[in-house]
Amino acid sequence: MSTIVLPPEWAPQCAVLLTWPHEQTDWADRLEEVDRTFLEIAIAVCKYQNLVINCQSFPRLEAIADALHENGVPPEKVALFCAPSNDTWSRDHGPITIYDNEEPVLLDFHFNAWGGKFDSEKDDQITATLYELGAFDGAALRHIPYILEGGSIETDGRGTLLTTSACLLTPTRNPDATKEKVEAVMAEHLGVKRTLWLDHGYLAGDDTDSHIDTLARFCDERTICYVQCLDTEDEHYAELSAMEKQLQSFVDADGAPYKLVPLPMASAAYDEDGQRLPATYANFLIINEAVLVPVYGVPEDQAALDAIQSCFPDRNIEAIDCRSLIEQHGSLHCVTMQLPEGVI
């Protein structure tokens, strides 16, 4: 009988996956700006572990390699691959890794760009293509005929899943989705024993139907940090306050209330059309010995860094300017996917 475990993000990792923007993505008009952000992420990751980079353009792959070399990143820390892509959101088109009887297995769920909002045919094939190219040589690959994005789930590593009903019950992903059916899929493929459903919480400008990784995150088995809104005039106040109350009602697998750590709501940022962008500090990435935290050049940045440092006292905090990423409605966690130990 197999024993399936979905490891928490703080478990040991071998690498991080990035799908780099290119000229045929929505980043075309601001490639230079987003290149700097991706390069900053890549350099920070390589201080602690290896990196797998995918980009469909060979010339850009060469330029990426040159830029990393110029910034002192040893070439043996980075594996470069060329596979077609529609966009750059590795969290959602990348593999979700489980351990099945202690052996790493890559789960290749289907990806339909958050319910068919954008083109996704190439992105849906990236994990399989990279596997065929030898990017993941230490793990088996398992195709799952179900739509699921990595940004929509959080785990404590003990069988508890944290998610949002707004996302996982959206009929444009899996038309027959109910809480009972979703929980059955999570139990079968991810080894989930219990699911905590957040029925409130959203961010303006978010395309994902309230991915959990923009709102609330496990920091350890007993700690959840979350976005808090204290401004009664802010459009998020009612929903995020209701989310906070629901989080306060949750208990861990042992029946104890969670330690809840609020993160500030970042000052409102807008695109050139005046649309509010989803700036969130919850979209951090945990890696070996460090946490990469998105910042946006606003007054709340330092308070967010301090709060996250309090959640991870034994890890270095690396601030990454992600103002460019929110222009396409995502942030740091959204463009990365950690690969747990053994995948490579």
UniProtKB/TrEMBL annotation:
Biological process per Gene Ontology, one example term: putrescine biosynthetic process
This protein's record includes keyword 4Fe-4S: no
GO molecular function per UniProt: agmatine deiminase activity; protein-arginine deiminase activity
Presence of keyword Hydrolase: yes
Signal peptide: none
Organism whose genome encodes this protein: Hahella chejuensis (strain KCTC 2396)
Protein's name according to its UniProt entry: Peptidylarginine deiminase and related enzyme
Domain of life of the native organism: Bacteria
Protein keywords: Hydrolase
